[in-house]
Task: structure prediction
Amino acid sequence: MCSDIAVYWFRNDLRLGDSPALCSACAASARLLPVYCHDPAEDLPTRWGFARRAGPRRAFLYAAVDDLDAQLRARGSRLLQLRGAPAEVLPALAGAIGATAVVCEEIAAPEEQDAVAALRAAGLTVRTVWQSSLLEPLELPFAVERLPKVFTDFRRALEWSDVAPPAPRAAPTVLPPLPDPVVSLPPSSPAPVQIGERAHAHASFPWWRPDFAGGERAALAHLARYFADDRAQRYKSTRNGLCGIDFSSKFAPWLAQGALSARVAFAALRRHEAARGANESTYWLWFELLWRDYFRFLHLQHGRRLYRACGLNEAAPASGHDPEAFERWCAGRTGHAFIDAAMRELAATGWLSNRMRQIVASYLIHDLGCDWRAGAAWFEAQLVDYDVYSNHGNWLYIAGRGTDPRGGRRFDPDRQAAIHDPDGAYQALWACVD
Ligand code: FAD
Result:
């Protein structure tokens, strides 16, 4: 059905390539207005007492929004940036331009679902399209309501079934014309984010450099570089590294903002394997991308239940919380040098390796006795790759309130330091960064 005028609302899908939602909006509308909403709620303080989004994540996001605007302009369109809650600004905009529909990606997390429900309650027709996973939920060998409770069973069922990710869709070469008139608003410019010299030199994800900037073009260039050498061939033996640019793929920040589609990343992995050979390391990249899908499907299966203090574990004891210990953890002042190094790295750079994420999350929950939701909120504020599904899923897992068959993970920080930082280099590196 062709609606005359439609709004395409970009959410966590800041790209033109491999976007079934955008393709369908282009095909179905005579005129299309691409929009991004800067929701002030994103910058309000959390219930735990800190701002919801720290500088690095904001700066990385704004770079992606600017890149998207530039790409749209190159295709005869542009991105309208609005300030305000989507439920307020989108109905007003639709009314002003005579739009009959809003098209956007589907996000299966409570706040994002509420935002769509509010638009519908305001009288808008909203069409949502699921597009952030590698695999198509409807092609899984089981109904998503019957998602295996344990990740290994999920992975095995997929591998036995031969289900494969769909091939990525090409970006539209031209977009439908803009409605007339388009309200003109100045583009947003991020407040400059101060980065200390030490953090500059040692950051594992230097998002202020053009080659690590937010947005689809930097994402695709990074992807091409990553698979052009042998990093993927060694991934399994390097992935537990703590610091540096090359020890893991660094796809996550672009995947999180949707500048990179998981299917595009996977197709590049398969091309790399065809050219240079598949091995255990290249397999492990697929394995990790499946974890990403697993947490997405877990949201489709359980929705809001994942957001309760007890998560999926009805029998879990109530979460305790020690606000002072939590504050020390956030500031990297717990007194445990390994934990403090990681928390300082996170605050200074917006990045933390997977290994250190596991260790500091475990420390907060199992050693300091704090509420896992406070830790998840701190990661949400800090991480440049914050992703609602992966963040929530991993925190629940470590807290024993998700789907860990062992009922939660405690990492002994002394043992972990001995294994992963035997000479103390990582601790020394971040010890004096504030
Ligand atoms: P690689 O090691 O190169 O892996 C390739 C891709 O696989 C990643 O980009 C990511 O998309 C996926 N992946 C890898 N490990 C995981 C995992 N454990 N769970 C889900 N997907 C995974 N990842 C996020 O993208 N956003 C988050 O907000 C986030 N929060 C986390 C919180 C905690 C407490 C923990 C323990 C992990 C969290 N992760 C999160 C998962 C993981 O740490 C990051 O995806 C990974 O470190 C990103 O680096 P990379 O892109 O170099 O990953």
Summary: Residues 239, 248-252, 255-256, 285, 288-289, 291-292, 295, 354, 357-358, 361, 379, 383, 385-387, 390-391, 394-395, 398 surround flavin-adenine dinucleotide (CB under 6 Å). The first strand starts at residue 3 and ends at 10. DSSP finds 18 helices and five strands in the chain. The chain has three domains: 3-131, 157-162+197-303, 305-429.
